Amino acid sequence: MARYNFKETEAKWQQVWAEKRCFNVEVDETKPKYYVLEMFPYPSGRIHMGHVRNYTLGDVVARYKKARGFNVLHPMGWDAFGLPAENAAIENKVHPAKWTYENIASMRTQLQGMGLSYDWEREIATCHPDYYRHEQRMFLDFHKAGLAYRKESWVNWDPVENTVLANEQVIDGRGWRSGALVEKKLLSQWFLKITDYAEELLQAIQTLERWPDRVRLMQHNWIGRSEGARVFFPIVGRDEKLEVFTTRHDTLFGASFCAISPNHPLAGALAANNAELTAFIAECNRIGTSEAAIETAEKKGFDTGLKAIHPLDPSWQVPIYVANFVLMEYGTGAIFGCPAHDQRDLDFARKYGLPVIPVVKPTDTDAVAIGDTAFPGEGVLFNSRFLDGLPVESAKTRMAEELRRLDAGQPTISYRLRDWGVSRQRYWGCPIPFIHCQDCGIVPVPEQDLPVELPEDVTFDAPGNPLDRHPTWKHVSCPECGKPATRETDTFDTFFESSWYFARFADARGAEAFDRNKADYWLSVDQYIGGIEHAVLHLLYSRFFMRALKKCGYTDVEEPFAGLLTQGMVCHETYKDENGKWLFPSQVAKDADGRSVSVEDGRPVTVGRSEKMSKSRKNVVDPVHIIDSYGADTARLFMLSDSPPERDLDWTDSGIDGAWRYLNRLHRLIGEPSFALPAPDAPRPDTLGDKAAAAEKALHKTIAGISEDLDKFHFNKAVARIREFSNLLETLDGKTDGEGWALRRGLETLVQLIGPMTPHLAEELWALLGHETLLAETAWPVADPALLVDDSVTVAIQVNGKLRGTIELPRDCAKEDAEQAALALPAVIQQLDGKAPRKVIVVPNRIVNVVG
RNA sequence: GCCCGCUUGGCGGAAUCGGUAGACGCAGCAGACUUAAAAUCUGUUUUCCGUAUGGAAGUGCCGGUUCGAGUCCGGCAGCGGGCACCA
Description:
Blueprint: H1 6-19, E1 33-38, H2 49-67, E2 71-73, H3 83-92, H4 96-112, H5 129-144, E3 148-158, E4 163-165, E5 170-171, E6 174-175, E7 183-192, H6 198-204, H7 213-223, E8 225-234, E9 241-246, E10 257-260, H8 265-271, H9 275-284, H10 291-296, E11 301-309, E12 317-323, E13 334-337, H11 343-352, E14 360-361, E15 380-381, H12 392-405, E16 409-415, E17 420-421, E18 423-424, E19 434-437, E20 441-444, H13 466-469, E21 475-477, E22 484-487, E23 491-492, H14 495-498, H15 501-504, H16 516-522, E24 527-531, H17 537-551, E25 564-567, E26 570-576, E27 582-583, E28 588-590, E29 596-598, E30 606-612, H18 623-630, H19 632-640, E31 649-650, H20 653-671, H21 690-711, H22 715-730, H23 739-754, H24 759-768, E32 792-799, E33 802-810, H25 815-823, H26 826-832, E34 839-843, E35 847-851
Parallel strand pairs: 1-2, 1-24, 10-12, 24-25, 26-31, 32-35
Antiparallel strand pairs: 3-4, 3-7, 5-6, 7-17, 8-9, 8-16, 10-13, 11-12, 14-15, 18-23, 19-20, 19-22, 21-22, 26-27, 26-30, 28-29, 32-33, 34-35
The structure holds one RNA strand.
C-alpha cells in the first residue's frame, strides 16, 4: 500500500463534514449542551503556532464531547478591531477595513485546512457594523444605568506625532516612531464603573471552580481588596486637611512624613506659584503611564515645605512631600510614611534624612534597631502610647476607634481595581455613540440612529485620529436642540468587543445582540481555552460585562466562562549568525559534524535557547508550511503530544517527524494488517487465548484511561496511551485463538480514541475498517468495568524506605500475608541481618516497608 | 518594583491521595533488511562503581516533617507570564 496521502484524505473529509453539516448546531433541549470556545484571534493575516495549539486543544474537546453525546457549540470569529490595522494603513497605505477583511479571508482558509469542527455559519467579525451596533446600544444602556461616565485621565502623548501612544508604543520613554520623549497628558475620557462590582467580582471568584487556581489568584490580587483606614492630617496654615489611606494605621505613631501624588490637587495648587515644584511634577509625568514604569523608576520626592499635623498629637508635625511613587488612582492619592515598617518608606526616609521611629517589635525579641531593612511583620506595639503592648491586629482596631472618636479618620476598604477606561483616540475601533453639544453637553446618539458607522473615506497621512480631522463625519446636529454639534471621535478599547462575543455566538445572525432563550441555553461557556496572558484583563472585563448586561436586562448569566484552560506558549530555539543577526529556522541547517550552519553560506550559527516564537527573533515556523508538508493531523498530534497544554511547548523538527511517523505507522497497521482481520460484525469468540485476553483487558483500560485524560485535558498522556496500546496491538500475530477478533476490536477502538486528535486520518481508517457511518457522528466507546481490575498486583518491598524488591500478590490480600511475603524475601532477610524488624508498614496493593 | 507561575535523564515529559522515579516519545548507540540510500524493523540508553549477580547516588539549591518526599512545610536561586492604550 502506498504511503498515507494526507492531502487527498484531509481535503476529502473536510468536504464531507461540511456537506453533511456535521458541526452546525441548533438549540436542542433533549440533549445536554456543551459550549467550547477558544479565544478568537486578531486577524493578522497568517495563523501562527499559538493558534494551531489553541484551536487543536479546543477541537479535541469539541469532538470528544460530541462523541460523548453532548450538543456541542464550537464557533469561531475575528477580534477584528485594533492597532495593527492602523499601523498597516500607515506603513502600506492600505485601508484598515480592506486589510482586515483580506486577512480574515486568508486566515479562515488556513484554519479550515486544520479540520476544526467549527460551526462556520456563526462566524463573526467585530469590525462589522452588524456586530458593533449592538455594543453601541449596550453602551447607551450602561450610561442610562449609571455604569458609564466621563473623567479625566492620563495618556502617553507623543508631542511630535501629536498622537496618543499605547504602552507598547512607548520604548524607553520615547515614541516608537518619532523617538520623541513621551509626555503624560490629561484627556477627558469614557470609563465603565467596574469598581461598582469589585466586591462581587472578588467574591464570585470562589464559584469559578473549573478555573486554574493561579488565574483566580491573579484576579484576586488584581482587584486588591485591602482593609485600612482613611486618616485626616490637618495642614499647618491651611484650612484643608490631607486625607491619606493606609492599611497600617496601627503604626501611626511611627509616622515621619506624608507624601502626595504629583497629580494630587494639592500638588497642583502648590505648583501654581512654585517653579521648582512645577518642574518636579513635569519630571514625574515623563515616566510612562504604566505601573511597571512608575514602580521601577527611582523613588524621588520634593519637599513642599508644608507641614502636616499628626492626627493624634497637635504638637507633632511631619513634612509633606510630593513623591513620584504615590499613585493618584489608588486610595486617596496621599500616604503617610512609616519608615520603620515599610521598605519603600524606609528607602525614602534614608534618602531624605527623615526620622525612623520603630513602633512594632517581634514578640520573641527586644531588638528594634532598624538598619536598611524595614520590619513589616507581625508583632507587638511599643512607643505608641495607648497602643503599647497590643498585637498589630488589635492595635488597628483600637486606633480606628480612637480616630473615629477624634473625628480624624475611619476604617475603610480600598480596592486596587480601577475603573475601566474605554476611550481610544483611534480610527479602527467601534465609534462611541455620543454627541458633544455646546448647549446640551454630552448627548447620547438616539437609538434609531444606530449604528454610528465608521466613515470609509479616511487618510492616514497626517498624525492624530482620522475621525477627528474627517471633513464631515463628526459634524452633526444635536439630537436635543438641533444646533450644530460634534460626534465623539474616540472609539472603544478593543477589550469591549471581546467582552461579549461569546454571547453573540449563541445567536450570531440575530437582530438583537443575542436572543435571550438561545443565550440562556448555550451560556455559560463550558470550556474556554486561551493564553495565560489574558488571565486578568480580558477575563475580568468579560466577567464585569456580563454583570453590567444583566443589570441592563440583557441576560441572567453572570459568569461567562464556567471552565478555563490556559495554554502555554509555543517556543523555538533562536539562531544568530556571526554578525549577531537573527535567522529563521529555515535558514539554518546542520553540517556533517552536526554543527549548526547557515544554509546560505555555510558559516557557523549560534544556537540560542528556546523562547516564545516571535517575529522579532525570527524563531517562527509557519503552520501553513507544516500543514502543507505533513498535513493537519500531524501538526495537531504534535501539538498534543509530550507537553501538557498549560505548559510551554517546544517546537522541534524531530517532534513533528515523530508525529508524522506515527500516523503512517497507524495507517499501515490498519491498511496492511499482519494477518487477515475477521469481518466487522464477527462475534467475540467464546474463548480468547492469553494474548488476546490480555489485549482485551488493555483495550478497556485504554478506553477508561483516555476518557479520563481527555476529561482532565491531559492530552499528552492520552497520546502516550494511544501509542502504548498500538505497540501492544503490533505484537498480536494471529497464532492463537481470538487474536483476530482482539485485533479488529483494538484497531477500531484505537481509531475512535484518536479521532478527536487526528480526525482526518481517523475518519479514513474508520471507513477502511468497513464502516459506512462517519466517525465524527459515532458515539465514544465504553469501557467494561469488569475488565479494568487485575487479580494480582505488584507490591514494592522496602527496607527503611529503600526498594529491595517486588513481589506479586493477590489483589486485596490480607496485610499479614503481605508482611509474611515481604519478610521472606531474601534481600529483606539479608538487610535485617538477623534482627527483628521494629515495625512493618503495609499499604495494601502498593508497598510493604520493613523498618529495621 | 509588585503579582502569578515553572524547574524531573542528552531533550519533551510520566509518576491518581505522601508509597517501585524516568511511562510514552525525541535524539543517540548497536544490529537487521538493502548493491546503496531512504523508509521500516529489532535491541539498548538516568549517572557512577563493577566482567557480572549487584551496589551507590539521583527530581534547581539549602534545611525541615515522615516508616517513606518529585509530591508537604520554611528559605534561596534561575527562568518565564501579567502590570490597566498589544491582543
